[in-house]
Amino acid sequence: xxxxxxxxxxxxxxxxxxxxxxxxxxxxxxxxxxxxxxxxxxxxxxxxxxxxxxxxxxxxxxxxxxxxxxxxxxxxxxxxxxxxxxxxxxxxxxxxxxxxxxxxxxxxxxxxxxxxxxxxxxxxxxxxxxxxxxxxxxxxxxxxxxxxxxxxxxxxxxxxxxxxxxxxxxxxxxxxxxxxxxxxxxxxxxxxxxxxxxxxxxxxxxxxxxxxxxxxxxxxxxxxxxxxxxxxxxxxxxxxxxxxxxxxxxxxxxxxxxxxxxxxxxxxxxxxxxxxxxxxxxxxxxxxxxxxxxxxxxxxxxxxxxxxxxxxxxxxxxxxxxxxxxxxxxxxxxxxxxxxxxxxxxxxxxxxxxxxxxxxxxxxxxxxxxxxxxxxxxxxxxxxxxxxxxxxxxxxxxxxxxxxxxxxxxxxxxxxxxxxxxxxxxxxxxxxxxxxxxxxxxxxxxxxxxxxxxxxxxxxxxxxxxxxxxxxxxxxxxxxxxxxxxxxxxxxxxxxxxxxxxxxxxxxxxxxxxxxxxxxxxxxxxxx
Amino acid sequence: xxxxxxxxxxxxxxxxxxxxxxxxxxxxxxxxxxxxxxxxxxxxxxxxxxxxxxxxxxxxxxxxxxxxxxxxxxxxxxxxxxxxxxxxxxxxxxxxxxxxxxxxxxxxxxxxxxxxxxxxxxxxxxxxxxxxxxxxxxxxxxxxxxxxxxxxxxxxxxxxxxxxxxxxxxxxxxxxxxxxxxxxxxxxxxxxxxxxxxxxxxxxxxxxxxxxxxxxxxxxxxxxxxxxxxxxxxxxxxxxxxxxxxxxxxxxxxxxxxxxxxxxxxxxxxxxxxxxxxxxxxxxxxxxxxxxxxxxxxxxxxxxxxxxxxxxxxx
Amino acid sequence: xxxxxxxxxxxxxxxxxxxxxxxxxxxxxxxxxxxxxxxxxxxxxxxxxxxxxxxxxxxxxxxxxxxxxxxxxxxxxxxxxxxxxxxxxxxxxxxxxxxxxxxxxxxxxxxxxxxxxxxxxxxxxxxxxxxxxxxxxxxxxxxxxxxxxxxxxxxxxxxxxxxxxxxxxxxxxxxxxxxxxxxxxxxxxxxxxxxxxxxxxxxxxxxxxxxxxxxxxxxxxxxxxxxxxxxxxxxxxxxxxxxxxxxxxxxxxxxxxxxxxxxxxxxxxxxxxxxx
Lengths: 528, 315, 276
Prior knowledge:
heterotrimer, B: mainly alpha, MetI-like fold, 79% helix, C: mainly alpha, elongated
């Protein structure tokens, strides 16, 4: 028996069509995964179920939940269903909780809205539910506030709010996207367990095939507002009837062709590097306490090599990057770039800086929105003592843009005229324009959809082969690191716990943390 | 929480010291010899010199600053150059007019602004919203002294609903409040307009936050979600403005007192300036600044009550 | 910028404020009647075909005085905003570029200190020290504008300093000052324009208030605030004396505020995700 069945659902917001003829169903005790890239309409499908749609949205078709037609119900009836029979978990645990209320009050609220129970009784249920969600009373009393919890813990509170009344359907909209891999695995386990215990149906929205492969009973794949393929998980993976399913699957497993001409000459070497931060003062007097973000790490990066740096948020990888880029002075150890030594308290001089460039994660925040592409990509010319001008400048811009697969005419456009993938290409062009030897890729493909990500990885592999570039590839995403790097550094709490050839580290991890990371990572097994 | 309060107290103390130095120096550079002014132009140089001695005007600048601050701390504000009476006495009754009027205006402003700001945000785009936005736009644009002139003409002189000016004292609280109502309303109008607009936009910002969606997913109706989750979060920017407004109300009181012939701090400061009674100017300004800084302190503490994230630093 | 004119709020505001700017400009060449000649015979005329807004107790044409008074209001407000922007913005940018440094602390604490003085009190102290005049009114209003712009630009700049495109400029070796002017300033310009419009309108109100209490422009310079002050004793039998200058202030301020609000809506990048 299907708890939820959607058939022929169409949705428009204003005059824009969002969904076309969507049909899905979810059964009690089972997980239905809805997969798609950004703009596929997967989240809007979920919001059609509990009718929390944006202003101006018009849905037609049929959404039957537990025998009722959701599109026909009035607001009052919907309110009695939301929270009681339909629970919902959101993508951003950091902002999904009210910052000025305790977690106990927020979980108990679900109970108070829908039942006539007393406040004490509601709080008791909240306590039980938090326990079930892995937040025991000893460390997580009801009077904690959201800001006192980590992202993963907050997501557990959101889940507790959603399941406090044992709903028949749980909608989870990208519940783990904002979390680190190890936390992601724990949250998925929790959700999976709850579905079985309470015999509820779950609709799991995700952009990541790898995340849902292990947990979903059924999969529906969406693209541009339509369901292109759906069915039992095993069948989907075995058959892959629709070309888009195949493309999505291949893209998430994509390994670009690379030759590895690394020569045994280090372009960058870091020895016992230390980075301290001053923390806010705890007392009114006395020195401010220090936080050691990077604690004496050492590594070498060879010419033509692609070196991965893996770690979860807060491990110190960004701090290390900023120190290498010369943005912040180091407190101990040394950085050697092409044979030039930079010690504690020194900044990286200009001549050395021009040998390194960087590509950032966010394709939308990496460019000054007020400048045209020509001005944006030539920014690194500031590092040259004699920057090219006139025709030479134009030639350099053309070359850099062509190199990354863009057109020279794009130089006269503003950045908002480009898509995320194109912007990331322009970011690479900006890094290439002064012909550096080393490019630091700081989560450079993390914000991209899988199909775009595969294209950018191909571009990077091609560029490193042709221009003999070295990469320092920083990422939290193990599958990407595995695809593009020769060696990998695993970082935890400011230190390297494991260093080795990428193939060896992934097949035979030595350190327990590396093992935990790899086990937690949602990597699709390649089946023929 | 305790450390947070202590930190705010320390900052309050530093602000007071800084403000007192600025005020003292500002008065210091003003032209005119106090002793000469007190005795008049025809006084003999010997008499002036003797008075300078008596007032301590020949002491070093540091000594004079310290004795002034020391006096303030012990409640001795000095002696008026013009009237030869203690400044404390001159301020005395007037404080009990100006401060209650400013607080009355603050209360009125809040009582007007909160409901209309909340309604405008809750019914965004409706005729009520347009009415509030238009009305507050006008409220901000009307100079309060002009509004006061027209209000006195119409409501007091023509219809006799309110008194046209003067203050009967607090012996009869009803009459006192009646005398202060129109001035306080005039003061409150532009502030209420600003506050209502801030309330509306802050609430609109909060309504678009993720946790409001969570609240709706739990089964709250729009109204429940607004009351239970949005209001308290929206209060934080509103409090900031409320704190700043006290300073505007005190300053505005100076003008409004002039129009309504109210014997408050404002009229005192005008007289004192025209008579170059610097010690009075100095003390009254310090008193007003002290009130403003004190209100800032109260607002800071209220922040921590509203927002648990601020309390964290203290735990 | 042209998009702004498609917004009804901006258009109405622009027309209102524009009328008074135009009146001020025209008054340099032409006014219906002289404003500095006393004509007791024609005193306190009610509005008619000759004197559109009537005449005052000296028989001067109120319409002409409002035209000339617009000059004072606009000049004082513009210069005061100029002082606030000219000093406040660089201070705010510098504080943001050196966040947490001594410089930042000093700038921000000084700002707080100025805020602790009610604006009118600063004006009163300045005029007490240096005498009442339009110039001193400008200084008094301008000083209060400095922390407004310093705070605004510091806050906006701080959030820009965390953006990746600023990081990219740092990787390109640009100095904080260079980045502040090339990347930060153009991106906070919208905010500054909006705030500038609002401070402009507040400046007009403040000038009127100062002139009303006799601390602003001195006779014979016509000023809206002083026209109201002079009308106070006569308002019961000649209400037109108070009505027209007051309306001039209200309409100018209203026009500027409407423009500021419309621009804020136009520039606001936030896309509200309203839910039903």
